[in-house]
Amino acid sequence: MNSVVIAITLFILALLIGVEVIGKVPATLHTPLMSGANSIHGIVIVGVVIIAAEAHSPLSYVLIFLAAVLGAMNVVGGYVVTDRMLEMFKSSKPDKGKDKASQDEQASSLTTESAKDQGADK
């Protein structure tokens, strides 16, 4: 009974500390923090694999399956949100160097084509 009380006490303390820490995060940093936290949830999948070695009843198989599915969804969701955030910071302006190179290619191909056309006319 004593170990149950200690476990519950630790859980409540962790819950209170987590609420306090997350409550102090500004709104602009909330999404990056959560996307990183979700991608770190890969440790949940490692835990599922470790616990799956001890499963012997149909109920434990169902709970392990649910934990694996929810953990995988959280990991994938973290990477998707992170990818969307990084897309916001990409430049929408085309690079000047790339445009210059593509213009040079177009000009040289047009010159080559016009020279071929003139040679065919003669």
Automatic annotation (TrEMBL):
<feature type="compositionally biased region" description="Polar residues">
    <location>
        <begin position="104"/>
        <end position="113"/>
    </location>
</feature>
<keyword id="KW-1133">Transmembrane helix</keyword>
<dbReference type="GO" id="GO:0005886">
    <property type="term" value="C:plasma membrane"/>
</dbReference>
<protein>
    <recommendedName>
        <fullName>proton-translocating NAD(P)(+) transhydrogenase</fullName>
        <ecNumber>7.1.1.1</ecNumber>
    </recommendedName>
</protein>
<keyword id="KW-0812">Transmembrane</keyword>
<feature type="transmembrane region" description="Helical">
    <location>
        <begin position="59"/>
        <end position="81"/>
    </location>
</feature>
<dbReference type="GO" id="GO:0008750">
    <property type="term" value="F:proton-translocating NAD(P)+ transhydrogenase activity"/>
</dbReference>
<feature type="region of interest" description="Disordered">
    <location>
        <begin position="91"/>
        <end position="122"/>
    </location>
</feature>
<dbReference type="GO" id="GO:0006740">
    <property type="term" value="P:NADPH regeneration"/>
</dbReference>
<dbReference type="GO" id="GO:0050661">
    <property type="term" value="F:NADP binding"/>
</dbReference>
<dbReference type="Pfam" id="PF12769">
    <property type="entry name" value="PNTB_4TM"/>
</dbReference>
<keyword id="KW-0997">Cell inner membrane</keyword>
<keyword id="KW-1003">Cell membrane</keyword>
<comment type="function">
    <text>The transhydrogenation between NADH and NADP is coupled to respiration and ATP hydrolysis and functions as a proton pump across the membrane.</text>
</comment>
<keyword id="KW-0472">Membrane</keyword>
<keyword id="KW-0521">NADP</keyword>
<keyword id="KW-1278">Translocase</keyword>
<feature type="transmembrane region" description="Helical">
    <location>
        <begin position="6"/>
        <end position="23"/>
    </location>
</feature>
<feature type="compositionally biased region" description="Basic and acidic residues">
    <location>
        <begin position="91"/>
        <end position="103"/>
    </location>
</feature>
<feature type="domain" description="NAD(P) transhydrogenase alpha subunit C-terminal">
    <location>
        <begin position="8"/>
        <end position="90"/>
    </location>
</feature>
<feature type="transmembrane region" description="Helical">
    <location>
        <begin position="35"/>
        <end position="53"/>
    </location>
</feature>
<dbReference type="InterPro" id="IPR024605">
    <property type="entry name" value="NADP_transhyd_a_C"/>
</dbReference>
<keyword id="KW-0520">NAD</keyword>
